[in-house]
Amino acid sequence: MTAISGGHGRQGGPVPVPVPVPAVVRFRAACPECRGRFELAAGALRLAIGASRRTTFYTFTCPECGSAVRKPAGERIVELLSGGGVRTLRLHTALR
């Protein structure tokens, strides 16, 4: 798979230039239970985006001990995970 980046053609207009995109994105993670460190594919993670920092987090299952892990996701983590193909759930607040 490739992405397109701009270049310049004979008439000064942009010409698509292929830029390689990794077929599989992997993320480094750690388990707070067993302290294992590993890499996970995007499909192994879930991102939940809520109305606040407290309700924005990502989850995964530790491949070493099987624990369900939930960690907070700041703006940079949200950007990296969503850009890397992690499934994202937008949490809605109830209207009052």
Report the structural category.
mainly beta
Q: Which whole number gives the mean pLDDT?
A: 82
Ends apart, CA distance between termini? 46 Å
State the helical fraction.
under 10%
Q: What is the CA-atom radius of gyration, in angstroms?
A: 18 Å
Strand content: 35-45%
- Count of DSSP strands: 8
The succession of helices and strands, N to C, reads EEEEEEEHE
Quaternary status of these chains?
A: single chain
> Largest sheet at a glance?
4 strands, mixed
Low-confidence stretches: 1-9
Treating each run of at least 4 consecutive H or I residues as one helix, how many helices?
1
Overall geometry comes to flat
Strands of the widest sheet, in order across it, are 7-6-5-8
Give structural notes.
Helix content is 9%, strand content 44%. By secondary structure, it is mainly beta. It has a four-stranded mixed sheet, with helices on one face. A two-stranded antiparallel sheet has the order 1-2. It has a two-stranded antiparallel sheet with strand order 3-4.
What tags apply to this protein structure?
96 residues; mainly beta; 4-stranded mixed sheet; two-stranded antiparallel sheet; 1 helix; flat; disordered N terminus
How do you describe this structure in short?
This protein has 96 residues and is mostly beta strands. It has 1 helix and 8 strands, in the order βββββββαβ.
